[in-house]
Amino acid sequence: MSISLLIGVLCEILILGYGTKIMEIIYGLNDETLSVAGEYLNVAGLTIGINLILFNFSSYFKNINKSHILVYSLTAASIVNVCVDYVLVYGKFGFPELGAIGAAIGSVIGYTMSLLLSIFFFRK
Fold first, then answer.
1. Contact between residue 106 and residue 89 where contact means Cβ atoms under 8 Å apart
2. Rounded distance, CA 46 to CA 58, Å?
3. How far is residue 87's CA from residue 78's CA, in Å, rounded to a whole number?
4. Which residues contact 90 (CB under 8 A, 6 or more apart)?
5. Which has the closest alpha carbon to 98: 112, 117, 85, 111?
6. Cβ neighbours around 13 below 10 Å, total
7. SS3 letters for the chain?
């Protein structure tokens, strides 16, 4: 878990420092697309560490023959992600219209929901 967290933090630092430049070099995006992609990546980069930790939980639950917990966790995460995306991307229910940043926030919140459920079932 510690290594996953460390890798996640290092990846986020790399993304915040060089993410836009790396995308420009690899994908050759135009300035407008690069700006939106960079904004998304800066926030969604947090999901790398969360996802690595979820892989640890995934292995654990599979080893104890409780892989159905993964289905519950990921289903809840997907539902939360879609709902938050709808609200934040399009600015529904009084929230600001955030576009790509809203989608990134939805991803982070969805993955966090999955992580919290995994921790809950792990502790149980």
1. yes
2. 19
3. 14
4. 97, 102
5. 85
6. 11
7. CHHHHHHHHHHHHHHHHHHHHHHHHHHCCCHHHHHHHHHHHHHHCHHHHHHHHHHHHHHHHHHCCCCHHHHHHHHHHHHHHHHHHHHHHHCCCCCCCCCHHHHHHHHHHHHHHHHHHHHHHHHC
pTM: 0.83
Q: Which residues of 66-95 are buried (b: 16+ CB within 10 A; e: fewer)?
A: eeebbeebbeebeebbeebbebbbeeeeee
For residue range 18-73, list pLDDT tens digits in order: 988 888 888 888 888 888 888 888 898 888 888 999 999 999 999 999 988 888 99
Spatial CB neighbours of 85, under 8 Å, sequence gap ≥ 6: 102, 103, 106
Rounded CA separation 72/47 (Å): 19
Contact 54, 110 (CB under 8 A): no
